[in-house]
Design brief:
about 210 residues; TPR-like_helical_dom_sf; membrane; transmembrane; protein O-acetylglucosaminyltransferase activity; mainly alpha; transmembrane helix
Length: about 210
C-alpha cells in the first residue's frame, strides 16, 4: 500500500514536471486505474473508539483485580494509564484513592478523593474514602462527619456504616457504633461480614462493662 502511494506521487511529479507526451499520460492513467492510490486513512494508527473503549474497560478490570490481589504497585501503574486517558473518571479516581490509602500515602489518597468529589459532589464512596484518611490521621470528628455525609447521600451504603461504627468505637461512642450496625443490618440483614463485626464490637462492649 505504502509503495503504491509513493509510486503514484513520484509518477505524477515526473510526468507533469517534464511535459511527457500524451502516450505516457495515458499509460499513467491506465496504471492509476489498475492500481488506484491508497487512501491516506489506511496509515492512521489511532484505534477506533470502540477499541479504545474496550481497551479502557479491560485495563480497568485488570487494575481492579490487581487491587483485590494486593498488587498495589501494578494496580497504581495501570490506574495512572487510565487516569491519563480519562482524568474525570470517578471510578478511576476512587480506585487511585483506595490504592494510595492501602499504601499509607494519605495525602495522595485524600487528593484523589477530593478530585472525585469535585467531579461528582453526590459520590458517597468518595466521602467515605476521605473519612478513612481522617480516621487514619486520628481526626475522628472529621472522619465521623464524612461517614455520616456519605450515608446521607447513600443510605444503603453498607461500608459507610461499618466505617462509621469503627470511628465511633475509636471515639469511645459504643452506643453510637451499635446503632450504626443496627442501621446497616436493616439494609443487609444477611451480611456475614457485618454480623461478624457487629458481634465482635458488641462483645467488646460487654467485656469493657464487666
Amino acid at each position: 500500500m505504502q509503495n503504491t502511494l509513493v509510486l503514484y506521487i513520484v509518477s505524477s511529479i515526473f510526468i507533469f514536471k517534464f511535459n511527457l507526451p500524451y502516450f505516457y499520460i495515458f499509460w499513467f492513467a491506465f496504471l492509476t486505474f489498475v492500481f488506484p492510490p491508497p487512501s491516506l486513512k489506511c496509515f492512521d494508527d489511532s484505534p477506533e473508539p470502540t477499541k479504545r473503549m474496550l481497551s479502557f474497560q479491560g485495563l480497568a478490570e485488570l487494575a481492579h483485580r490487581e487491587y483485590q490481589a494486593g498488587d498495589f504497585e501494578a494496580a497504581e501503574r495501570h490506574c495512572m494509564q487510565l487516569w491519563r486517558q480519562e482524568p474525570d473518571n470517578t471510578g478511576v479516581l476512587l480506585l487511585l484513592s483506595s490504592i494510595h490509602f492501602q499504601c499509607r500515602r494519605l495525602d495522595r489518597s485524600a487528593h484523589f478523593s477530593t478530585l472525585a468529589i469535585k467531579q461528582n459532589p453526590l459520590l458517597a464512596e468518595a466521602y467515605s474514602n476521605l473519612g478513612n484518611v481522617y480516621k487514619e490521621r486520628g481526626q475522628l470528628q472529621e472522619a465521623i462527619e464524612h461517614y455520616r455525609h456519605a450515608l446521607r447521600l447513600k443510605p444503603d451504603f453498607i461500608d459507610g456504616y461499618i466505617n462509621l461504627a469503627a470511628a465511633l468505637v475509636a471515639a469511645g461512642d459504643m452506643e453510637g457504633a451499635v446503632q450504626a450496625y443496627v442501621s446497616a443490618l436493616q439494609y443487609n440483614p444477611v451480611s456475614k461480614r457485618l454480623l461478624v463485626v457487629f458481634l465482635s464490637q458488641h462483645s467488646r462492649k460487654q467485656t469493657s462493662i464487666v
